Amino acid sequence: MASSIPLLAVRGSEGTSLLIGPPRCEQHPSFQRDAAPGRCVSFSRDGTLFAWCNGHNVSVVKCSDGSILSTFDLPKTSLLDFSPRSSVLVTWQAYSKTPSCPQGGANLQLWSLKTGQLIKGLYQKKVESWCPSWSEDEEICVRSVNNELHFYENQDFNVIANKLHMQKVSDFALSPGGQPSKVAVYVPGKQGAPSFVRLYQYPVLGGPSAALANKSFFKADKVVLQWNRRGSALLVTASTEEDKTGASYYGEQMLHFLAVSGETALVQLLKRGPVYDVAWSPGSSEFCVVYGFMPAKATVFNLKCDPVFDFGTGPRNAAYYSPQGHILVLAGFGNLRGQMEVWDVKKYKQVSKHQVPDATHFSWCPDGEHVVTATCSPRLRVANGYKLWHYTGSLLHAWDAAPESQLWEVLWQSFPDGSFPERAVKQQAASSEAPPTQAYRPPALRHLPAAPSAKLHEEEPPQNMRPGAEKAKTALKNQKKREAKKAARQEAKPELEPPSDPAPFSDNQSEPSSGDPEVDKKLRNLKKKLQAIEELKEQQGGGKVLQKNQLEKMQKEEQLLQELKELQIRQ
C-alpha cells in the first residue's frame, strides 16, 4: 500500500510545478517551481521519477526529495516517456533538416537513466506511435518501422531480434502483463479486401496460421486497439471518416472483440450511432461502451460480449473507471455541458451527479477517492484552470490561471497496481446539481394545469441486463405486494365489538350520479388512472426509477384531466 499522497504535475505558460495532492494541494516542499513555460512532463510507471522539458533542457528528479537524477541538453523535446522499470528515458522532437545535416538527425532518442548516456538514436518522423512499447519486464521492446514491426530483446537496440512484416502494418499494441507477450497488429484493407486485426504470441510471428486470433472487417479507415490489464482480450474500435448514409458527422464506428483463446465477436450495441468511448474495467472481466445518437447510451458488457447493465440514456460521451475498478464515471465533456454521473459498479447504484462546465480533461487520482477536472489550452483558451473533487461531488480545491496565462496539462503521479486499497463507496452528502429551470407561465394561466412538456428525445432509465435479473425483480415486487395485502387484511380485521349494520362499501358511494351509467363508468376509470399517476409521481419523488410504460402513463396526465373536465361539464 502507498504511504505517500499522490502528486499532481501542472504545466502551463507560467511554468511547471509539482503539487502534493488531495486534500491539501500545496506546492511540493522539495520541488522549486520552474518558471519557464513547460513543453512536456512525464512520471515513471512506478511514480518514483518525474521528468520535464522547459525549452532549455530535460530534467529528471526523484519525486521523494526533488533531487536531480539527470539533465539532458534537449531544448526542443516535445514528448517524454519512461520504460516500465525506469531504466530508459525516451525523448522525441519534431523531425527536421538543417544545412549542416541535410538528411535530418535522429529525433527519437533512448537514454540510460543509470549512466545518463545515449543508448540509441532512431528516426521517427510521425508523432503517431512515436514511443517504443516494452513488456513489463523490459525483456522485449517493439516499434513500427516502414509498415513492419521491429523487436528488440534485453535492451539491445543494435540488433533487431525479430520482425513482423505483412502487407502494411498500420498500427499495433503490445499486451500488458507478464510473459508471454502478445502483440495485436492492424492491416487496413485495400482494393476490395477487408481490413483485419491479428493477435500473435511472441516470438511466434507470421501468417494467419500462427495467429492466436484473427478478425476481419470492412468499414475501417483507422482503429483503436485496447488490451485489458491481464492481456487476455482486445477491443478494436474501427472507424470510417465519413458516414455514407449521412446519418452522422462522426463517420461510422464498429466495436470488435478478440481473445487470445481465439474467440472473436462483433459487439452488438443497443442503439444506432457513434461509439464515443470504450473503457476496460481494471478487473479485465468487463468493459463499458458509450455510444448512440444523443442522448447517448452507456452499457457494461462481459467477456462474452453480453450486456450486463445498461445505464439508460443521457448527455455523455466518456467513461472512466477508478484505478480500483469499483467506481465508474460517465461524463459529457467537450461540446456537452459537463455532466458527471458517478456509479458504484458493484451495486450499480448512482452515487452522485453534478456539473463541471467547460471541462476538457478528467483523470482519477491513484487513490480512487479523488478526481481532477481541468479546462486546458488549446482546446479552450479562456477560463483555464483545474479543480480537485471528491467523487461524491465535494469541491476540495480550485485554481484559475491568470487572464493572460494558459494551462496546458495536469498529470497525476503514477503508482503500481494495488498501491491504494479499495474503500467502501460513499453516497453524495448534498446535491450540487442546479435545480431544473421552470418554464415561464403568464400570471393569468398559473391557476390552470400546465400543458404537457414536449421532449425532443425519449429518455431511457437504467436497467439490469444480467440473465434472471428481471425475474428476481418481479419476484421481489410480488413479495412486496403479498406483504402489503397481508398488512391490509390485518388492519381490516373486525374489532371485538363491531358496529351494527355496517354500510356496504362502494367505489362511487360518495360520488353524485350523472344519471347516465356510461358517463359514470368513464368518470370512475379516469379517476382511477389519475390516482395511479399520482402514485407514480410519489414513487418518482422518492427516488425510484420508473419504467418506460410508467413514464408514458405520466405524460398522459394533462389529456386525462381535460377529458375529466369535459365529462364533468356534461353532468
Could you please describe the fold and organization of this structure?
By secondary structure, the chain is mainly beta. The protein has a domain at 517-535 and 554-571. 12% of the residues lie in helices and 34% in strands. The protein has 4 helices and 37 strands. It has a 5-stranded antiparallel β-sheet with strand order 24-25-26-27-37, with no helix packed on it. Strands 3-2-1-36 form a 4-stranded antiparallel β-sheet, with no helix packed on it. Helix 2 (517-541) runs antiparallel to helix 4 (557-570). It is globular and about 105 Å long. The termini are far apart. The model is unreliable at 430-437 and 494-510 (pLDDT under 50).
Ordered list of secondary-structure elements with their pairings:
Elements: E1 7-12, E2 15-20, E3 26-27, E4 40-43, E5 49-53, E6 58-62, E7 68-72, E8 79-82, E9 88-92, E10 108-112, E11 118-122, E12 133-134, E13 140-145, E14 148-153, E15 162-165, E16 171-174, E17 182-187, E18 195-201, E19 213-217, E20 222-227, E21 233-240, E22 252-259, E23 264-266, E24 275-280, E25 286-291, E26 296-302, E27 307-314, E28 318-321, E29 327-331, E30 339-344, E31 349-355, E32 361-364, E33 370-375, E34 385-390, E35 395-400, E36 407-412, E37 463-464, H1 469-491, H2 517-541, H3 548-555, H4 557-570
Antiparallel strand pairs: 1-2, 1-36, 2-3, 4-5, 5-6, 6-7, 8-9, 9-10, 10-11, 12-13, 13-14, 14-15, 16-17, 17-18, 18-19, 20-21, 21-22, 22-23, 24-25, 25-26, 26-27, 27-37, 28-29, 29-30, 30-31, 32-33, 33-34, 34-35
Helix pairs in contact: 2-4
